[in-house]
């Protein structure tokens, strides 16, 4: 869907992303790179219908060689923060004709603020709010290689978030924003083995999938 936006606000975010200064090798850096402002020039220029009509008349009577292309800017931003936020980290890279697993540790927080990656006109955000906070509740980890390995999980046992339930079922969210992670006990699950672990153990894991729930 193409929308005509005010050029002064089209690339504005809910919170200033330039103040973020994301740490190298972190989930924030991944999000920062994914939502960066891109310039479309040369062979990536954008077909401009307005420019084409201005110079050549109605587009329907034109041949493709008469279309007018122009430089443009592109940015991927979040317009509707979900109740449950899932990250799937790319854990492979091309090495010649083969795929190789990426074993690098990606840092991720217990409480994540999505606001620097949301559009300024973001929906489902309280009026005047400049934060969109999420609390970590699950991690999937893979050990091994591209050919073989083992999946384990970290999960937080916690009380039901009634505010989140109201948000999912009725679209209602309170104006008072929670800023602390949901309290609970973390467990490491490997097949039939379950063991209580600390949050430090969870945050040091080599995450493959990350699961966050909205703090409301």
UniProtKB/TrEMBL annotation:
GO terms for biological process: protein deubiquitination. Transmembrane segments: none annotated. One of its GO terms (cellular component) is cytosol. One of its GO terms (molecular function) is cysteine-type deubiquitinase activity. InterPro entries: Papain-like_cys_pep_sf (IPR038765), Peptidase_C19 (IPR050164), Peptidase_C19_UCH (IPR001394), USP (IPR028889), USP_CS (IPR018200). Residues 1-215 form the USP domain. It comes from the Eukaryota. Pfam families: UCH. Keywords: Hydrolase. This is UBP16 hydrolase. It comes from Ceyx cyanopectus. The gene is Usp16_2.
